[in-house]
Specification:
The structure is a single chain. By secondary structure, the protein is an alpha/beta fold. It is built from 14 helices and 17 strands. It has a six-stranded parallel β-sheet, with helices on both faces. A six-stranded parallel β-sheet has the order 11-10-9-15-16-17, with helices on both faces. A three-stranded antiparallel β-sheet has the order 13-12-14. The longest helix is centred in the first third of the chain and has 15 residues. It is globular, with a radius of gyration of 22 Å. Bound molecules: adenosine-5'-diphosphate and magnesium ion (MG). Magnesium ion binds next to α12.
Length: 406
């Protein structure tokens, strides 16, 4: 693999190793509702601890605005990590302050500490490279090496991802390595037909990747929040559904481009429309071109793809040899709007070939809906990162580790 790997760091026993993990897990009332990302980080942590390194883990959680906020504390993650590793995890209540210092100097060989949320410091995500560098330098003080294992953030130019790799001997962890091995199979010579399924709620983020994916895939399936911008681009009204009106021209361009390239672009033919964005909202299934005609009128919100669409999507997925899926088809957190996502997940488990799920919420969805991780070829811990990787974009967090492609 053309990236610096753990062995390039030499013997780490007795060394202080900083590791960037992605512990950005979903929380509800302080409880972790999907621990997939924590579990995915264990192999690298264990490898470092077994070598006798003093391991200082760091991560972000959620989107705090550059200052401490209790609801974004990583304390619940420290507790869960300790249980999973069956070891003491020292938790520092800050990142580069007094408490972090106290925790770091107390650390013995083969012991693990976790720092508080990196995004409590505005320099972590600053647009100013000098500010990021100053934060990275403070994080790096006293450390001997840096391991980058938060695959979910390697597409971000942030202090704990990029600048820190420039001031310490650095390497990719086992998780990043494994992600690259699997995802490279999608970018190099995917077995065809190759289908990509997109959904979720980050509409403008995900619309951007379509342009790069269209020339690479045979089938593109669109569900989730972005489908309404497509329907509107085709001239249909979408009532109160999620819509990015400023993206309509772009989407019209994609529709034309798909036709030119001979790519099958599948849009839902029916949609589940609800009276409101609520788990117990009244709802009905209507044709995708008749959303405005639902009994909820202008108030109607499309919250899932309908059963006909789910069946057609499932068939298109099962008939592919390579499938990448990012983004739930509907608001799967509410049972009434989970059927589309469930049908897609089921179809992925039946693919005769490689089926990859990417994205925090998508991974959480498949587990919540009762699927086992092993039913899929791979569950990527990165949503945005995996999409940008598939697009062929240069990811700053990988470049910083000497990545040159496989
Ligand atoms: P991922 O984390 O897998 O990349 P996203 O974060 O983009 O996925 O999107 C996940 C969210 O998208 C889920 O919380 C889901 O409720 C939401 N979603 C899916 N379909 C819709 C819809 N039609 N309207 C609003 N939100 C939706
Ligand atoms: Mg998400």
């Amino acid at each position: 693999m053309a990236i610096r790997t753990l062995d390039s760091l030499g013997d780490l026993s007795g060394r202080t190793v900083l590791i960037r993990c992605d512990f950005n897990v979903p929380l509800q009332d302080g409880e972790i509702t999907d621990e997939g990302r924590i579990v995915a980080s264990l192999p690298t942590l264990r490898a470092l601890l077994q070598q006798g390194a003093k391991v200082v883990a760091m991560s972000h959680l959620g989107r705090p605005k550059g200052a401490p906020e209790a609801k974004y504390s990583l304390a619940p993650v420290a507790r869960r990590l300790g249980e999973l590793l069956d070891a003491e995890v020292a938790f520092a209540a800050d990142t580069v302050g007094e408490d972090a210092h106290r925790v770091r100097i107390a650390l013995q060989d083969g012991q693990l500490a976790l720092l508080e949320n990196l995004r409590f410091d505005p320099r972590e995500t600053s647009d100013d490279a000098a500010e990021r560098a100053s934060f990275a330098a403070e994080l790096a003080a006293g450390a001997d090496a840096f391991v980058s294992d938060g695959f979910g953030v390697v597409h971000r130019a942030q202090a704990s991802v990029v600048e820190i790799a420039q001031v310490l001997p650095s390497a990719a962890g086992l998780l990043v390595e494994r992600e690259l091995t699997v995802l490279s199979r999608l970018t190099e010579t995917p077995e065809r037909p190759y289908a990509v399924v997109l959904g979720g709620s980050k509409v403008s983020d995900k619309l951007g990747v379509i342009e790069h994916l269209l020339p690479r895939v045979d089938r593109l399936l669109i569900g989730g929040g972005m489908l309404f911008t497509f329907l509107k681009a085709q001239g249909h009204e979408v009532a109160s559904s999620l819509l990015e009106a400023d993206q309509l021209d772009r989407v019209r361009g994609y529709l034309a481009q798909a036709e030119e390239l001979g790519v099958e672009l599948l849009l839902p033919t029916d949609v589940v429309v609800a009276a409101a964005f609520a788990a117990d909202a009244e709802h009905e299934t209507v044709a995708a071109d008749a959303i405005a005609g639902s009994r909820f009128g202008d108030a109607g919100i499309g919250l899932d793809i309908g059963p006909d669409s789910a069946a057609a999507f499932a068939e298109a997925i099962r008939g592919a040899r390579t499938v990448f899926w990012n983004g739930p088809m509907g608001v799967f957190e509410m049972e009434a709007f989970a059927a589309g996502t469930k049908a897609i997940a089921q179809a992925l488990t039946e693919v005769d070939g490689l089926a990859v799920v990417g994205g925090g919420d998508s991974a959480a969805a498949v587990r919540q809906l009762g699927f086992d991780d092993s039913a899929f070829g791979h569950i990527s811990t990165g949503g945005g990162a995996s999409l940008e990787f598939l697009e062929g974009a240069a990811l700053p967090g990988l470049e910083a580790l000497g990545w040159e492609g496989r």
